[in-house]
Design brief:
single chain, alpha/beta, nine-stranded mixed beta sheet, 20 helices, disordered N terminus
Amino acid sequence: MKYRHVIVALAVFAAVTLNSACGRTTQEQSVGTASVSTQQAADTIYFGGDILTMEGKAPRYVEALAVKDGRITFAGAISGAGRWKGPNTHEVNLAGQTLLPGFVDGHSHIFLHVEGQDWADLSSAPVGSTKNFDDIIRALKDKQKALGADETQWLIGSGYDESLLDEKRHPTAADLDKAFPNTPVLLFHVSGHIFIVNSAGLKAKGVNADTPDPSGGVIVRLPNSREPSGELQENARFPFLDVIVKDRPIDESAKKLAKAFAYYAQNGVTTVQEGGLQESHLPVLRAVAERGDMSLDFVGLVFQPVAEKLIAEGNTQWGVYEKGVKLAGIKITIDGSPQGKTAYLSKPYLTPVPHCHGDCRGVSALTAEEVKELMLLSYQNNVQVYAHCNGDAAVDLMLAGHEYALDQMKEDPKAKDRRTVIVHSQVMRPDQLDAYAKYRIFPSFFTNHTYFWGDAHRANLGEERGAFISPMRSAIDKGIRVANHTDYSVTPVNQMFVVWSAVNRITRTGSVIGPEERITPYEALQAITINGAYMYFEEDGKGSLEPGKVADLVILDQNPLKVDPLTIKDIKVMETVKAGKTVFTLESAK
């Protein structure tokens, strides 16, 4: 059957209507008359705004985008869109708004949103309002009351940042004991790498003066004593992980996961990540997937001990989606956080590190030999590696492990496209970027740090090291593809803030840290679209607006490439579309 190719001009009418799909006031426009049958016609055609495809090294726009059965069928001139229009095609006039590929989560912990719905929010401004220990106690008591919890149930608070508290220190068990003598309490530091546990909580887990520090962890002690202060760093947290990751009915967890998906969707994210998938998460994911309720694509980085178990069992299909869920690879955590002063550095911190005397360079969670063996195990089984490295000494361990695995396997570094990812890659040295380029290591940077802790990094590390935090410009200039992320719940999922931080690198006090590492708005968008898809081996199916790719879309009220760079963080997500289906609109959220 032959069809006429309808060449039309964009018709603009005086009448103004409200687009019911996303609450936009739009001028009535049309891509022409229907020219194909219902079976062949697009479900939706978008036009009338900036449609930024993200498919090349430079910005490329098209006038119209057609979607059918969850995939893009056309991206091009308005004059060619008419041939995809049928009698039931829904026309969406963007009315000057901007259409982009849906955002790909470069690294976060979505299950912390699942668990965190039962936690007290202890964040300081601009995320929350906590200013001091009294605020922490008040928030904990309010949450205990809201949950209807008795005094024997664990009480958890998350997001406190000692550098922003009036007391300028971590709380101790004694500080919490005054208000909660019988209730076990755990505070989750904003970095996630430090827990504060009160006396009832320490007793419940058998942590006392006789408990030795675990390998890769520190039980902070009271001065001149072996008694725990309540602060647990890195691997010393592990006995308390079952407090954080609760075993609850699957239906209850599924409802909480749906709320977490909604939070990500309102930020334009269509592919989410759990960066430390626990064994208890697996049955929840399977149940939600079987019900067909995975509203967003879910990528799991499997917590190292769990991944080792799955590798040994040999039944896991790594890197393959099953009903919206993919176990992408193994998550190896090599060190801690720079703001918590547990990131593993080659040179000491310049400011005092609490409870450390002398050569204070942070904590290595794994030995060099452990990293080497984990890398070899992963490569031998073709499991993609995602390694948490914040400090340059941790990066050194990771690179040495990579070299060791290749040497043992007698593998040419360029023979296999492994896309090994170093998550965070923050306190780096320029020579390490050369190694990234040589070995095709993929960094997922964390430029939100430049705002939230840029001033602290400058003080703790000095100007030279602080300015090289998340060195995106240098990496791109060396030909390295990069992603960027929020590490939620360390920082909010807001993707426009991620772009803003990469473009501006402005600290809380308004100074610029590492101005030479700033990147363009387009490069910043690449990091959360096509490059994020590349990191997951998914660049052929998502990350840009091209025919044949999944119709994962986000509509913004303004174009990040055309506004003042300082205002990028103020851009709003108007609508999020997953595989052609709307999963969020700002209008419906009001």
